[in-house]
Amino acid sequence: MTSVETVRASVRSCALLGVVTVPVTVEIEVGPGLPGVHIVGMADSSVQEARLRVKSAVRAAGFSMPGNQHIVVNLAPASVRKVGSGYDLPIALAYLIATRQIPGKPFDDCLISGELSLVGHVRNVAGLFAYALQAQREHMRLLSGPVTTCMPELGQLEHLCLDHLSGLRTNSFSRPRVIAVQPACAQLDYADVVGQETAVRALAIAAAGQHGVLLVGPPGSGKSMLARRLPSILPPLDERERREAALIHSVVGDDLSSITAGVRPFRSPHHTASAAALVGGGRDLRPGEASLAHHGVLFLDELGEFANPALQALRQPLEDGVVVLSRAQGRAVFPAKFQLVAASNPCPCGYLGDHEHLCKCSEAQVNRYQGKLGGPLKDRIDLICEVSRIDPSKVLESGKGTSSATLAAQVADARERARQRGDEVARSLSSTKPHEVIEACRLDGELTRLVEKMARRHHLSGRGVIRVLRVARTIADLDCSDAVKSEHLYESCMYRVENTLE
User: What are phi and psi of 343, to 5 degrees?
Assistant: First the structure.
């Protein structure tokens, strides 16, 4: 290349908008002009920093990059905001191809992503599984840094790994070192829970029908212990669910080993979490805890201590199964089909209704505290179960309760009955139309009148009536009954109205 010659090259990469990938073409022009590297195409500061990393890495790898060149890098389309350090490797490759230091043909069908160190080593960035899915959709190869992974299988995708930029001289590419998925580690077991048969039954119903559940009781009654064992009775993720969950966790840089092994996500954010932390947002529109719990469980401990705006932000994801965020920089849609499990004290001191401790809260304090749990959010929770403190003698019987294996078998059987009946248990329950729920219950005239009587007596909303029927249908499936019976309706209604929050 002479000092007056203008040369150009381009390679393929992609941008992440939430969990969606957008194809990006990295174009470069090297020619006469004022010395410097200019990056255009709505690149943020982290992309602009690539100018220094690329220059140091290229020289450290033994290639030439004179300081008197005028270099323009265009990230197209310019209407899409580019974020992160994953454009380092594409920019370096485009420069080396343009200046004819390496041939460009081997990279024509490659989607490239990677960060460069100052000495030329290639590192991966968050979202590698999303890039892999994009490469598979476009029938391209994926070029990244070295990978030690247990990502879900992606068929015939060819994945090339580059350890150091100097490896481009000899096409020294390696393959991902795939770690064999290990069996899931030992989970907590409901056999440790004794004296809480009603609560265990409620959680088994919740697991069988993917119902939201709220556990209410004084401190030390075992609410968190019960909730944290719920994943042990849930069926493992199927192949589609693994890919969807892995995509979200890859975007935030989480380890994918447990998801690849089929373990459902269990997220337990602290009660100081903001609305953006729960449903997503921030400067780069990252997924929140609700999306990270996709196809899994979102556990909100100390529900009454969460800020009210954060709790109300969960209403739409609970109803629709997605989080829709609209910001000045764009619009992002995050999947959020999670099972909500919450635990709360009945009042600020925690002892309202306790027979051994006197509640010291005023009526105004109790009403204010329970106000966070009531209204629209409470109407979207299917089961509300009161958890009382057990007798000390029961504690010594730990390990003699119903095992998680037994409960998991019951849950699997109930889900199979629902599947055979035509219900899609895997989809969000809220997406099931009311008339489908009513038809599935097969109510006769007497049971219809019973439902109407319950609704009037307990002032149930229309949504509340349908949720009582959904839970009753799940209870019938657990009892291997083709039709909902009166005892199923009574039990379902009990989980909705007979508690200290009424």
Answer: -130, 140
* Predicted confidence (pLDDT) at residue 423 exceeds the cutoff of 80: no
Residue ending a domain, choose from 403, 428, 453: 428
Do 247 and 307 lie in one domain? The reply is: yes
For residue 343, is pLDDT > 90? yes
Count how many domains the chain has: 3
Note whether 162 and 122 are within 8 A (CB). yes
Per-residue pLDDT band for 430 (boundaries 50, 70, 90) equals very low
Residue 1 lies inside a defined structural domain of this protein: no
> Where among 146, 178, 210 does a domain terminate?
178
How far is it, in rounded angstroms, from Cα 394 to Cα 195? 6
Beta carbons of 142 and 111 less than 8 angstroms apart: yes
**Judgement on whether residues 96 and 28 belong to the same structural domain of the protein:** yes
Residue-wise DSSP of 245-284: HHHHHHHTT---HHHHTTPPPEE---TT--HHHHH-BTTT
The C-alpha atoms of residue 234 and residue 206 are separated, in whole angstroms, by 10
Residue 111 structural domain? 7-178
* Gap between the Cα atoms of 22 and 13, Å rounded: 9
As a whole number, mean pLDDT of residues 182-211 equals 84
**Does residue 219 share a domain with residue 167?**
no
In a domain, 183, yes or no: no
For residue 389, pLDDT beyond 70: yes
Q: Specify the residue for token string 């920019």.
A: 91
For residues 29 and 61, state if they share a domain: yes
Whether residues 365 and 458 fall in one domain: no
Q: Which residue has the higher pLDDT, 177 or 385?
A: 385
Confidence class of residue 151 from pLDDT cuts 50, 70 and 90? confident
pLDDT at 410: 95
Q: Which of 325, 271, 276, 278 is nearest to 302 (CA)?
A: 271
247-293 pLDDT, tens digit per residue, is 999 999 888 888 988 899 999 999 999 999 999 987 778 899 999 99
Beta bridge partners of 148: 177
Q: How many CB atoms lie within 10 A of CB 39?
A: 21
CATH number at residue 275: 3.40.50.300
Residues 174 and 255 in one domain: no
Residues 212 and 299 in one domain: yes
DSSP secondary structure string, 343-396?
A: EE-SSSSS-TT-SSS-----HHHHHHHHHTTSHHHHHT-SEEEE-PPPPHHHHT
| Interatomic CA distance for residues 130 and 75, integer angstroms | 19
Are both 163 and 196 inside the same structural domain? no
- For residue 77, whether the previous peptide bond is cis, meaning omega lies within 30 degrees of 0, is yes
pTM of the model as a whole = 0.88
pLDDT band at 220 (very low <50, low <70, confident <90, very high): confident
Dump pLDDT digits (tens) for 292-320: 999 999 999 998 889 888 988 998 898 88
